[in-house]
Amino acid sequence: xxxxxxxxxxxxxxxxxxxxxxxxxxxxxxxxxxxxxxxxxxxxxxxxxxxxxxxxxxxxxxxxxxxxxxxxxxxxxxxxxxxxxxxxxxxxxxxxxxxxxxxxxxxxxxxxxxxxxxxxxxxxxxxxxxxxxxxxxxxxxxxxxxxxxxxxxxxxxxxxxxxxxxxxxxxxxxxxxxxxxxxxxxxxxxxxxxxxxxxx
Length: 200
Hints:
Blueprint: E1 3-7, H1 12-21, E2 25-29, H2 39-48, E3 54-59, H3 64-72, E4 78-81, H4 87-96, E5 101-107, E6 120-125, E7 150-152, H5 161-168, E8 172-175, E9 180-181, E10 184-185, H6 187-199
Parallel strand pairs: 1-2, 1-8, 2-3, 3-4, 4-5, 5-6, 6-7, 7-8
Antiparallel strand pairs: 9-10
Helix pairs in contact: 1-6
């Protein structure tokens, strides 16, 4: 069954929504502006999160020591790299932590299998001057030949999530703007999409 990640949580209400609807993962974004959260705020929110839900730290070209500290303190359970981190960076990270690593790939050409030390790829839309979180979708034909477990993001919402899952069979769908109204998480949208994914 495809797993669900709700990304960009930053309020106590967001954690309550997650605890009610039980996605597999939630994401704390430590980069950008729109959904950025401080390390301190993430630590506080993690204490409120249902222990069965795994937290993913989303980083863009972050200092490795900061990621290691957040991992060691139990604030994040998985590491998502959304910047220009290369394989050497991923190897250094994995030498210092056993947390699973997700490497985001902004798709603009056909993706075959590629060698990476990361545990998962995350496919997202390519948007110039943005590292992700644009809410834009991409041509899924470009990733149909990729045959390892992967996360998929980019414009996924309740109107298209069933098609995405049936066509691509991703390991996990990653949602953010698709479960928001007015720039904040919407409980009814989260309920609806979790119900839809769990029913497939």
